[in-house]
Amino acid sequence: MAFTQGYGNSAYGSPYTSTGGHGGQAYADQYNRNKIMTASPAELTLLLYEGAIKFCNIALIGLEQNDLNKVHTNIVKAENIIMEFQATLNHKYAVAEDFDKIYNYIYDLLVEANMKKDKEILERALDEIRGMRDTWKEVMVRAKDVKVQ
Questions:
Q1: Disulfide check for 125: which of 54, 75, 87, 109 has CB 3.0–4.6 Å away?
Q2: pLDDT per position as a tens digit, 87-128
Q3: In CATH, what number does 40-143 get?
């Protein structure tokens, strides 16, 4: 799995010591790996929404810094998450068509924001993703799948 590949490599330092200069980071990496590996499907979906939001925020910072590589790289990461959501839609349910339209809209906003390096368009995409995330949190609470803070 990509999450654990290379972790035991000495170049990353020991997860239990600060040798290699990555001690604290190693703990954080291990925590994140454990969080992903033990998450329910609903929690994984939430983590993906959070990831897309994080990448859009990093891209916004890149715009402020005029770091076009940072902008592009992180918008593409957000686009990939949206494409993953689309690819995993179960079209035997009618609501999947609605989700597909929303994901297409968000994806198109992300592509346009990336092409134009436009902050306002990126913020619109971010607002849509946040809305989807918040809706998902509400679904999780109502389904009592996990306790969401």
A1: 109
A2: 999 999 999 999 999 999 999 999 999 999 999 999 999 999
A3: 1.20.120.340
